[in-house]
Predict the structure.
Amino acid sequence: MTNRGLGLAVLACALTLSAAPARAEETIKVGILHSLSGTMAISETSLKDTALMTIEEINASGGVLGRKLEPVVVDPASNWPLFAEKARQLLTKDKVAVVFGCWTSVSRKSVLPVFEELNGLLFYPVQYEGEELSQNVFYTGAAPNQQAIPAVEYLMSKEGGGATRFFLLGTDYVYPRTTNKILRAFLHSKGITDKDIQETYTPFGHSDYQTIVAQIKAFGAGGHTAVISTINGDSNVPFYKELGNQGLKATDIPVVAFSVGEEELRGIDTKPLVGHLAAWNYFMSVKNPANTAFIKKWKEYVKKNGLPGGDARVTNDPMEATYVGIHMWAQAAKKAGTVKVDAVRSAMSGQTFTAPSGFTLKMDETNHHLWKPVMIGEVQGNGQFSVVWKTSKPIRAQPWSPYIPGNEKRAQR
Amino acid sequence: MSTASVALQPTVVEPASPGRRLYPRPVWTIILAVYAVLAIGMPVLHLLVPAGSALHVSDYTVTLAGKILCYATVALAMDLVWGYTGILSLGHGLFFALGGYAMGMYLMRAIGRDGVYGDPVLPDFMVFLDWKELPWYWTGSNHLLQQALLVVLVPGLLAFVFGWFAFRSRIRGVYFSIITQALTYAAMLLFFRNQTGFGGNNGFTDFKRILGFPLASPRTRVVLLVLSATLLLSVLVACRALVLSKVGRVLTAIRDAEDRVRFCGYDPVSFKLFVWTLSAAICGIAGALYVPQVGIINPSEMSPANSVEIAIAVALGGRGTLLGPILGAALLHGAKSVLTVAFPELWLFVLGLMFILVTRWLPRGVLGLFWREDRT
Amino acid sequence: MPSAELRIRLPLLLLVFAVAASPAAAAQPLDPHPRPGLDAVTLDRLVDPETRDETIASLVEGTDVRALPLLRALLEGNLYRGPPVLLDRQGTLEDALTGAPAQVDRDQLEQVTINNRVRKTLERAVAALSLLQGTPAERLEAAHVLQENPSAEVLPAVQKALAAESSGEVRETLRATVAMLALASPDAGQRLTAVEELRKAHAKRQLMQRLEVEQDPAVLAALREAVRDVDLALQRAAMVGLAFSGLSLGSILLLAALGLAITFGLMGVINMAHGELLMVGAYATWLVQAAFRGTRHFDWYLLAALPASFLAAALVGALLEITVVRKLYGRPLETLLATWGASLLIIQAVRVAFGAQNVEVSNPSWMSGGVTLLPDLVLPWNRIVILLFSAGVLLGVWLLLTRTRLGLLVRAVTQDRQRAAGLGVRTPRVDLLAFAIGSGIAGLGGCALSQIGNVGPELGQGFIVDSFMVVVLGGVGQLAGTTIAAASLGVVNKLLEPWAGAVMAKIVVLVFVILFIQRRPQGLFALRGRALEEG
């Protein structure tokens, strides 16, 4: 063989060898779009960790369609325009098959046009105000009828204290405003008039609740009162502290919160708050095999990766929703035989999964929301919740609340 | 500017001959080359080269470039007031955001019936707030021309009023910086209120079209990119002309020794007010081009942190050079985009260190490392 | 209540109780395992949610003191479902009926849970039964609980206690409670007494409820007058509450801004990392608290936390001064930017070290709860303590500035740096020490903040603009200015809040400061000439 021939042969071998690994290293890229810095980092970092843990779990049992999942983590830094930019980057540059992310409604609304334009797929795990239904999003968190309305019904019931006056307290943004609008219409339908409803909003990051607590006290002098709190995560701590210190006990005026979970209670001494309520579709204290396994997996993951907080780390509803969402996506991809968005979207319809909440959740065939159970929990002295009421089976989501005028036109597709 | 005080002036050393160029030829070449890449090269590579090819410029890159160009324009405007007049504003993001909101109002009206609630007149957020009609300050917002005027007028007017009070009271230095920060903070709180009628925390989003052209189409994106690049170039040329003129000399004199300028017979207030208002208007226009490219405007654009970032972009690039801030903005936002993907936890360390390193060791910024203009 | 089984078991139980009876009555746990006083059936009816209410009611009406330990256990969540029903007595599990220790895996246990509604009735029941035993202090507390929440079923217990009660104070409270309960009595005279008691107790809700159904004109008139009086009292209480909350906010602003005022007055630099010094102090408090957790002295961790937060923040401040501020001397605008960068670094470092989540700082028990000034006004202890603390810090700083040599030097350099340097004062050293002390004060502020709000990496960001406003409004170089500015901003904010809402109040305050500065740029109090000079 001539030198040139030898050289050509070597070149050919090199090329084939370099080509082969390029095909074999194929993974399925999966995007994780949660704020790791900024104001939302407190809530969203756990979701990123849960997502990574779930992906590890799926990979350990063989991955999806014979390929491993490769997480692509980006940090939109609680900056809404950056969310849109990162979403576009994940879809066009990294070419991810699916994105798990977002927390605040602003972040979701800012990425929505991107997902719709590029036909991407987003799984959104947080309870929200509804009034949205996109073909490119699967909503694994609660819609108002799966959280807010059952909670108010409970408060009005004898078991819940028979409340007849309601103080609607929220942070000033779309989720509390829409939720309160829905609740007001609901209360009207139950015969509660406007003079027995007071609606107040505080800005983000508000920390001085002296005046608000005084207003609650004054309002409460008029009868059996309950407070419905849609205060955004962080501000709940000073609110609860002020409540406790000014002597407003849950047995006098119970407060039900929709944005307070185990994670938010980690920052407070909960003994003065015993008896206050939260409504979710999952609590860490729920006892069943799926939850025991889930919590065990999480604690091991925290220890293995040295995450800050160690043993004190908790699980909560959005984490459970993330876990369920990723598994359902994997199931749908397996059923569809591909990760292409349109096929997975059809395969998602009707998917079921035994969730840590102890119920078998189903992805509705048409409205992209999960059938979820509703649980009302009371705060305990140790930062956990004890479930005082729950639905017997999962209920269907109504993303278009019938209590908002104009929604009758919308088919509950 | 009072003509009387100018007439009393002794002769000043004039800049060189009337035909003096704004920049020396090599610099012009670089500037125009960069402009060509952005305004011609990128559009071509985006529109004409097919998506699979290695040379194709993705829409991600196009929007990113457009965004950075808008930030660069803001940095330029900031350099005008800080680098040349010595006014450190920690609230310039407010003017940027106001321009963005003015444009956003038009874009919200342009959604028409395609919004979630399908109301032909009211934007979605007003529908869910149960408002029955448009507030008075939204009238006519479906006309791009009116909103384009407001893009310049609103920030300009606010800047004028604020500046008039502040400069007349001779508030300077850190005091001035602090109250600009208070101003933008107060505005941010105001816009976060849903009752204010600007979408609250959600802001404006979900835009569909501008002047009938869909925002998601490559052609519209390219046009916006070209407009942003052209805006930057024009502002650069205009500012350069300004700083090389007599007015510019007075400005630098105010920066260096304001009291002496006053004793020389000039009224610093009018000069400062002029450049301050001009700067705000430029920021407004940049904001107006920013919003359609990014697809969302919300009150966190007015946060004090954003405004401080503008200042650091200027310092990073090299203040008082006009070209430096452009470079600084590109470096800063480029780094942000890269690092929040690659090393998300590292990004804030890098940003913080950037502040410290630049102020301590790079008083002339990055540009000053390799280019220094000899100006008499 | 007495059932067949109870008649059989009763003698046995009584025998068992004979041993435990006297210690139980004195409420001294001489017998580590006092026998509970219920039979199995009643216990099961207590545990079962369906029959729980009636069981509790009957136990209370029967004034059966033996049920007290079990009712308490149910209230505190220490009962576990059986069979057999288990009780958790300070960590050890035992059979609720017999007291025999039980070896059961805790994970298998299902707690007997109660909800709010039951809790309310249970608290009343426990209080009613506690009236019949326990120390005078315990009986008084129980009486107060009943007075706040009277209900018909406790009447037998209250009357029985009244008959046997020795302490005058307790008798007084009980009599008031009995009177209140007579609101529904057929006798108009009794109703009038009830109205009087309720008026004294400011129990507006009950008065209003009675107003809707009352027929007797005399009682109606009394009711209306009582409601009017109570309303007036409530208004007065609200005013006092408002003033207090304004002062409380002002005291917090003062703590936050004091350090900044000193360094700004001295060196003319605004330290944008000032908020982070607050945060460092708060985290230092958290660390100290975590170290004390579980020990006997937990309640006093604040004594150790104060110097810890002072030192931690002072160290960070000193470091900041040496590495950043000093090198940028004479360039205040650059210092502003550089310190902003430092603040980003500090925040991110804390985030990486301790996590992005908030950390829990529990209040010591003496800082929890509040003092009930009027029936409707509870002033939280933590805010009172912080108010006094900020006054103390202010005093300390004043003493430092006026009575120490360092203070003298600081004042000299603040007034005229050149001349002081010319007289031999080593200004860099004064700068460093003053900066460190100012930072330390911020650390103390952070320690205070940790007691009322969140502790997280972004703690400082919420106080930066407010601190600046206080400093700018108060003027430079005078403690009085800072104090008055802080107090006024706090009070004005709180005055506006009830009718303008929290956001508008804040905006108005900011705009007010901006406008005030236009009119009077040197602030409220300023050393002559110093105010507007800058490098």
Notes: The mean pLDDT of chain A is 87. Chain A touches chain C through 62 residues (CB under 8 Å). The longest strand of chain A covers residues 165-171. Residues 3-24 of chain A form the longest helix (22 residues).
